[in-house]
Specification:
The complex is a heterodimer of chains A (about 100) and B (about 400). Chain A has about 100 residues and is mainly α. Chain A has helices at about 5-45, 60, 90-95. Chain A has two domains: about 1-50; about 60-95, no CATH class. Chain B has two domains: about 1-55 and about 265-405, no CATH class; about 75-220, no CATH class. Chain B is elongated and about 95 Å long. In chain B, the strands form two sheets. In chain B, strands 1, 2, 4, 5, 6, 7, 8, 9, 11 and 12 form a ten-stranded mixed sheet that branches. A two-stranded antiparallel ribbon of chain B has the order 3-10. The chains are: A mainly alpha (about 100), B alpha+beta (about 400). Chains A and B meet through α1 and α3 of A and α1, α2, β1, β4 and β5 of B.
């Protein structure tokens, strides 16, 4: 088989697989809707405010409920010492100061 | 047209043979390039999916949460404030919340203890909290199923993450050290569904009476309040009125909660900027390698090709295909692997960083929210710069005299 045929075969395979993954995404999204709605129902029933993504510190567990001292924790010059702090930001209202 | 296609195929045949002559260098380049695309695509898929999921799930979050702040820190909320808030025009109802954290030194984990609304001892209208059926099975089970598991004094309903970490289940007992040093034993009345771990992994549902006994909180205080507003467009107005009437209160509206999660994993975050700058740096190195000139072997190859009749445009086309082949192969492989990584393996590469120092981490499967827009952005971020960076230096090399190119010896 010619090299170019091999390349186009690979390319077609890649496009096909990517297309299949998009189809998978679309189907999973539909199937996941029910589960999402159930999670939303739990949030509504229990009046939850945050996702349970990072449990290592109180301000990363409840990101939206963090207090105004969160950014500096216990000392104004203390550096962020939880890895999840580097994925997250203080709540919107703390950043958006006038 | 057929002639043009056939010509391009011959050029591709030749380019691939040429690339395979320098196997080690080109496969190394391809592997590195694929890795960059994989990291970028994984980051993009993960962040987009989690943001979208957060927006959908947290849509049911309270319209307004009111905290009390003392000296910049949260403080317990006096129930005496409730009447003031209820009297504000536009407020439909006010509900108190009791919640807090408990550090379990046995497994070094933080739990979130929460009293379901209406289950506070100060309010006798306790309602039943229902959890997933224990019977198991393949069928999709609702998160809440009436199976008789009631939250009563002396019992707990725990999140699946806690059950996994402590290897406990229904009807097991869990000891807690109360604020006064007394040990309280609670029976596990049920376990929250594993499907809900993204919101409930570390949750412990407890009655208001037990919560107060555990933390020593009197009946005149709660943790915070939730406020329901009659007209959703007046939420911000009501929040500002609460702030006006109770200067030491801090209202947090649902929009702020949603925006907080919309900005999570923002590119400015520490870890994200490290990932992105590493990717950008790698591309700069690629581009630099290409732009700083060709190796003597490549130069000689171009010289020979021109001497045997190839035109400058043919050489440029060859190099275009070289760049396109490497970048397209890296793009497809990287994106497909990234999809599998994020949506089939639960982001196993990111897991150590996401877990951080926490010993309790939710096991959750993200819903694959992927669209063409994301793939197009990724394509223009990765394939186009490399292909362009390949062509530019070739333009210079392809216009040189074949005689002088072939005279240059040694690699």
């Amino acid at each position: 088989m010619r090299n170019s045929s091999l390349f186009f075969l690979y390319l077609s395979g890649g496009i096909l697989l990517l297309g299949l993954l998009l189809v998978h995404a679309s189907f999973s999204e539909k199937a996941g809707r029910e589960n999402l709605e159930e999670k939303a129902a739990l949030v509504k029933t229990l009046q939850l405010t945050d996702l349970c993504l990072f449990t290592e510190a109180r301000y990363t567990r409840h990101l939206s409920q963090a207090d105004l001292n969160t950014a500096f924790q216990d000392h104004p010059l203390s550096l962020e010492h939880f890895p999840s702090g580097s994925f997250t930001q203080p709540p919107e209202r703390i950043i958006a100061r006038p | 047209m057929t002639h043009w296609i056939e010509k391009q195929r011959y050029i591709i045949d030749f380019t691939l043979s040429s690339l395979l002559r320098r196997k080690v260098k080109n496969f190394g380049l391809l592997a590195l390039y694929t890795l960059i695309v994989f990291i970028l695509a994984s980051t993009m898929f993960f962040t987009y999916a989690i943001k979208k999921e957060a927006a959908l799930i947290l849509n049911g979050a309270p319209e307004i949460v009111v905290q009390k702040i003392v000296a910049g820190r949260h403080d317990l909320f006096p129930l005496a404030y409730v009447e003031t808030i209820k009297n504000i025009r536009g407020v439909a109802s006010v509900e108190s919340r009791l919640w807090g954290y408990y550090y379990d030194s046995l497994v070094s984990a933080n739990y979130t203890l929460l009293t379901p609304p209406g289950n506070d001892a100060a309010k006798p209208s306790a309602k039943t909290t229902v959890v997933e059926n224990d019977s198991g099975g393949e069928a999709v089970k609702p998160l809440f199923e009436l199976n008789g598991a009631k939250l009563e004094p002396g019992t707990l309903i725990i999140g699946n993450g806690i059950a996994r970490l402590r290897a406990i289940g229904k009807d097991d007992y869990m000891p807690f050290r109360a604020f006064d040093g007394k040990v309280l034993n609670f029976r596990i009345a049920g376990v929250l569904s594993s499907q809900s771990e993204l919101v409930s992994s570390d949750l412990m549902l407890i009655t208001g009476e037990d919560f107060r006994k555990l933390f020593g909180i009197d009946n005149s205080h709660v943790t915070d309040l939730t406020v329901v507003v009659n007209n959703p467009s007046e939420v911000a107005m009501v929040a500002s009125k609460i702030k006006k009437h109770l200067p030491d209160a801090r209202p947090i509206i649902r929009d702020e909660i949603l925006r907080t999660y919309d900005s999570i994993f923002n590119w400015r975050g520490g870890m994200m900027i490290v990932i992105f700058s590493a990717a950008v740096l790698a591309f700069v190195i690629f581009a630099w390698d290409k732009a700083s000139g060709l190796s003597a072997g490549e130069r000689r190859e171009i010289g020979i090709l021109k001497a045997v009749g190839w035109e400058t445009s043919d050489v440029i086309q060859m190099k275009f295909w070289e760049g396109a082949m490497i970048s397209l192969t890296a793009f497809f492989t990287g994106v497909i692997l990234a999809y599998i990584h994020v949506f089939f393996t639960g982001s196993i590469v990111f897991e150590p960083a996401l877990k951080g120092w926490s010993s309790l981490y939710p096991n959750f499967e993200l819903t694959p929210f992927v669209n063409l827009e994301q793939l197009t952005t990724l394509f223009f971020l990765t394939v186009v710069p490399y292909t362009v960076a390949t062509i530019v230096p070739i333009w210079r090399a392809a216009t040189i005299d074949p005689d002088s190119a072939m005279r240059f010896t040694g690699e």
